[in-house]
Amino acid sequence: MPEGNEIHRWAARHNAAFAGRKVNVLPGPNHRFRDAHLVDGKKMVQVHAVGKHLGYEFANGLYLHIHLGRFGDFTEGLGPLVEPKGTLRAVMQRAGSGKVSRSVKGNAHALTGPYNGPPSKDDGTQPFPAEDVDWWELRGPTDCSIYDSDKWQALLNRLGPDPLAHEPGGHDEPSRAIDAILAKKTSIAELLMDQEMISGIGNIYRAELLFRHRVNPFTPGDAMDTKTLKAIWKDAAVLMKAGMVDRRIVCTKKSDRPSKQEPALRGEEHYVYRRHGKPCFVCGETILRKDVAGRTLYWCPKDQHTTKEQTASALKPGVSLRSQRVK
DNA sequence: GCCTTATGCTCAC
DNA sequence: TGAGCCTAAGGCT
C-alpha cells in the first residue's frame, strides 16, 4: 500500500540484500508468475526505484518489474523460507542459501520492519538489517512481470520526475514537472497524483502537501504559481525521505500537534488525510472529504480557501463513499 | 460472516 | 466514466 517513499525503501533494502548476487526467483504456489524462470538463478545486478515502480535488473538484461498497487506488500525473512500462503505471488531468495522449506509451520522470522528504527508492529518483533535479509515474498501486486530493457526504458520515459530520485541541490528536474502542471487545466489535486507529472506521490502525500502549502485542491494547474509548485516539490522530497526511514508517513509539524509530542502520536501524523469530520489542528474547522476521480480527497475548507460551492460538494458526514460514487 | 475502506492503475466503451 | 484487478483489516451484525 505504498507511495514512493516505501518503494525507495524496498529498493534500498533489496539492494543491500541481493545486488551482485545470484538469486532464485520463484512463482507463488498458484504459479501466476509464469515468467519467473527467465531470471531464476541469474545474477541480480541492482534494484531501481522510480516513482512507484521497482525494477530488479538482471545480468541477462531483463528486469523484474514490480508495482505494488494499493494492496501489494513484501514480507522479508531470515533463514529458510516457510509455508507460503495461497495468495503469495513471487519469491526471491539468495541462491545457495538452502532449499525452500515448506515443512515448517508458522513464520517466526518474517516481518516487514523498518531500517534500524523501533519495531513497526506491536507484536514485539524486532527489525533486522537489510544485509541480513535472505528472502522476500510478494503478495497482492498490481504487476509482477518481466520487462526487457526497451520496455523498462519506455516506462522511465513516461514517468515524471521523482522527488526521491534527485540529490538536494541538484533539482534541475522539477522544472519539467512544474511546466507540465502549469500547462494543464485539471485540478492540482488530480495533477499531483498523475505519475506523468510527478512520480511517487500518492493520496496521502497529495492531501498533506496541499494542506501544508494552504493550496485549494480544486485550483487548476494553469492557475498555480511557480513558487508554490517549487515549494511543494522540495517539501515532497523532505517528507518522503523521512517516510523512507521510519516506514511511517508523518506530515504534521510538532508545533501543530495537539500534544506537541515528538515523535507524533497516533492520530496526529496527518493534517487532513483520513481526518474527515474531525477538527483541523490549525484552525479548528471540520475536515472534509470528497470522491475525486475515484480517490478520496481530504482538505480543510478554511485553511485551503475552498469556495462555498466546493465546500458544499463535500461528502455529507456518515454517507458512504460507495453511495456517493453511484450518483 | 458481510460490508466498507484502503498509500494504484489499466482498459474498454 | 466505469469496471475490474489485487489483499487485508476493521467495524458491524
TrEMBL record:
Which family does the similarity line name? Belongs to the FPG family.
Natural source organism: Terriglobus roseus
Name the InterPro entries on file. Answer: FPG_cat, FPG_N, H2TH_FPG, Ribosomal_uS13-like_H2TH, Znf_DNA_glyclase/AP_lyase
| SMART domains registered for this protein in UniProt | Fapy_DNA_glyco, H2TH
Q: What class of enzyme is it?
A: lyase
**Cited Pfam families:** Fapy_DNA_glyco (PF01149), H2TH (PF06831)
Domain FPG-type: from-to ranges: 271-305
Where are the coiled-coil regions? none
Q: Name one GO biological process term.
A: base-excision repair
Q: PROSITE patterns, alphabetically?
A: ZF_FPG_2
Q: Name one GO molecular function term.
A: zinc ion binding
Please verify whether the record's keywords include Methyltransferase: no
Q: Where is this region: Disordered?
A: 99-128
Per its record, how is this protein called by name? Answer: DNA-(apurinic or apyrimidinic site) lyase
Q: What is its EC number?
A: 4.2.99.18
Give the record's keywords alphabetically: DNA damage, DNA repair, DNA-binding, Endonuclease, Glycosidase, Hydrolase, Lyase, Metal-binding, Multifunctional enzyme, Nuclease, Zinc, Zinc-finger
